[in-house]
Amino acid sequence: MTTRSMTGMKKNNRGMKRVDLAYAELASSENARDINRDILLEIIRSQQPVSRADLARVSGLQPSTVSAIVGQLIDEKWITEGAVARRPRGRRPTMLTLNDELVILVADLRPGYAILAVIDLNGRFLTRHALTLPSDAGRASIKMAEAMQTMREHHPDKTFEGIGVSVPGRVNPETQRILLAPNLHWANFDLKKALAEHFDLQIEMDNAANACLISELWFGHMDGVRNAALISVSEGIGSAILVNGQIVAGRSGLAGEFGHIPIDPAGPVCGCGQRGCWEMFASSNAALRYYAELRPKVAAASVQDLLKLADEGDDKAVAALQRQAKALGRGLRLVTAALAPEMIIVMGDITALWTALAPIVEREMAATMLAGTPPRLFAATDGELARLRGAAALVLQRHSGYHRSMGPSPERARRGVRPRK
To answer: CA-CA distance, 238 to 234, in Å (whole number)?
Structure first.
């Protein structure tokens, strides 16, 4: 039997990964079943509803192999059988879809608030809720847990697979403690343990930029891309790195902190304690500071206010955002020089006016290239949804035993947690 291995692809939970058939190669019989299972689950996700015959045709696997794996996926409650397709002749096949009864609780944690949601395997949101949080980490975690429990109770007919949390800082991949979060001030707080006191669910956490990159991989915006960087622009600057098809975490999960690289020793003091870090010039908070300097008597209360003012023609708001865009483009030199990515994805507040600001970012980035042509610049326009979907993908990928700094390993997948029967 011929099998395919998806090298360099992002592996999620029990087979949830982006599959690009351009990277197919022969696999050993030892890991063939896991790989074939992953391929079929991905085809179902991307082409649902789909029949067993179509799965065999698209995947190239034998019909008997497809039937055996489909049976396993149904038993594990990953997929369900639906309607019987009408065909002009021959046997009428039963169509397969992902099981939308399986859902995940997710949280996008920000300074002072969190966005909570319930999301299904297709990335659809069943519930979303904004929650203000106290500055104290312990009290905030209790408030989050109570709100998430209420959301869970509102969906008694769903099966909750786990909890995923997107964090504005770095999370130690071994301890799952928040290691670095200058804008959140929750350093070394064990949020996972705090939430686990309230839930009997698997809990996974990661940096918001990594979660966003996982979301982009999961939903197929990066098919064929093996080297990329994602830059998340919010109250700070976050980043995630894809190298040779693998998300790089580095020691203690600290890889990719470009936002905290000083670019001006005379610049403002950053939350990390350094002076003149990139995020002090290119973040949403920097744009608000620029506007306050231009209009000291009419400060914008939030970046959403600033974006609205710019959209309505406020010349000072436009100037502040253009200055931010220039700083973002110049700082991307750090990324292009260090990583030479094929693509840079920008996500966050600044993308709300991306049509007007993208040429500035592109021009500044191109002007500072060491050599060659600049990478493609792509804007993901709804960063909030991506962070939440990415938080869900954290749960999905880790059930397979995948460790993002190690790459997609079938051996780890075999040791992973399987769904409840």
So the answer is: 8
